[in-house]
Amino acid sequence: MKLKGKHVILAFVLLATGFLVSYSYTQADTESQMVKLTERTWEKEYFYRKQLLDLEEKNRELREELQGKTEKIQQFENNLASSERQIADFVERKKKLQLLTGELPVEGPGMTVTLRDAEYIPDEAHANNYIVHEPHIHKVVNELKSAGAKAIAINGQRYLSNSYFACTGPVITVDGTQHPAPFVISAIGDPEVLFSSFSLKNGVVDQLVADNIEVELEKSEAIQMDARLSSEG
């Protein structure tokens, strides 16, 4: 009985020992698996975090690239706008020069000055003293220019900065083209200013009348002038 009791105790001890060893192994294995699982989870988190950081860095680079391209586009647009303004200015200046040189037709408000030979010539007087001469045309043209006329025409022929007059009896030649009286001198500009300049006492009109020239002034809201003809020089 004593031997059997020892065997039972020994068996119980061995069983307990086996159980503890088995439990310890199982626990160790479980902990090992948990550690491995934790390591894999950390690796995944690290991988995803690194991916996220890489994406954020890439986004930052793309934003900087976009900003740079946007600034270049803006600069290009500014340069283009500036070029367009310069071209528009050049075109406008060219147009003004062409108007001054008579290469383009022109239209606008202004005034006309009509000079006529005297209707009455005394018998004892010399007829040459009662007709329009070159100096009379010059006086009117110079007064119009002084009053700010932008364009001038004589009997429809454009007057230019290099135009010349020549008087041959009752006929006046403008740049080689003959014009008989009456002489209609048209000017484009401010009608009120132009008219006022000819209304001054002892001004151009009084001087022309003193030379026996008939003068007629007329303001106009629309005066048309043709372009300079190439045959006019």
Automatic annotation (TrEMBL):
Q: Which top-level group of life is the source organism from? A: Bacteria
Write down the Gene3D superfamilies for this protein, in alphabetical order: Protein of unknown function DUF881 (3.30.70.1880)
Coiled-coil residue spans: 45-100
Which of UniProt's keywords are assigned here?
Answer: Coiled coil
Q: Which InterPro entries match?
A: DUF881 (IPR010273)
Q: Name one Pfam family in it.
A: DUF881
Q: Which family does it belong to?
A: Belongs to the UPF0749 family.
Q: What is this protein called?
A: Uncharacterized conserved protein YlxW, UPF0749 family
